[in-house]
Amino acid sequence: xxxxxxxxxxxxGVIVDGMNEYWYSSLMVCKKYLNSDxxxxxxxxxxKVSNTFKEVRPWVKYGWEMVLxxxxxxxxxxxxxxxxxKDFLNNYPKNCKDVLTRNSWEPDILQxxxxxxxxxxxxxxxxxxxNFHNPFFKVISFIKKAQEDGFKIGIISTKSSKFTSKILNSxxxxxxxxxxxxxxxxxxxxxxxxxxxxxxxxxxxxxKTLLNITGNNKTNKIRCFLADWGYLKESxxxxxxxxxxxxxxxxxxxxxxxxx
Length: 260
Fold this sequence. Notes:
It is a single chain. This protein is α/β, with parallel strands linked by helices. The protein has 2 domains: 5-17 and 134-256, Rossmann fold; 19-131, no CATH class. Helix content is 44%, strand content 13%. The chain has helices at residues 19-34, 51-56, 63-74, 85-90, 92-103, 107-131, 137-148, 161-170, 186-193, 207-214, and strands spanning 5-10, 16-17, 134-135, 152-156, 177-179, 198-204, 224-227, 244-247. The strands form 2 sheets. A 6-stranded parallel β-sheet has the order 5-4-1-6-7-8, sandwiched between helices. A two-stranded antiparallel sheet has the order 2-3. Helix 1 packs across helix 3, helix 1 (19-34) crosses helix 6 (107-131) and helix 3 (63-74) packs across helix 6. The model has no long low-confidence stretch (mean pLDDT 94).
């Protein structure tokens, strides 16, 4: 299949803005499953996304982290807020680990709870759950045009492949390949795809993920694009290495240039 040309996309922050869904579903996990003494007894589900949640979202890699962060934002004592977030983010991995330890949580269990909440919403009101996700229409159009021109499309998501597929299908997008978090790391997935496809490029909004790809000897020949419209930290656009290209929505078509 080496003659088959494949364009790869991250999902959240690149194809859709799912901020409303992250917040709502994470709140539902806190209310239904966490049984945490740190939370208010009668936890209200506030549909308006916390500004602090928006500010810390660029540090998130996996879904379970959003549950953890939501818990820290809404807890009764010393909540994570605009003022305290800087210290938390300065040592993000360690602080997340400390919260897990303090509450006797396991990442896999938090992820399971998040998946359960999502599945429940899908069963009870699929349209409402879909509407929490706002597509980037220029990306949707680009994907459809690329497929019309004979390119294959692959999506690598930190949601499950099942949930990712439901959202994409609601926008009439049907990628040839969809990988959810259950498929492993993006480096691993791309390493396997290289054996079968000519990968034209990978569009991602997490700089560290792209650095992992360019720094791996199995994947370092892949053209990597940092999505300017995604969930970026303020520093992400600065001092990019030569093998990571900052791309804007209006320039997506350039990815396919000279690839025919």
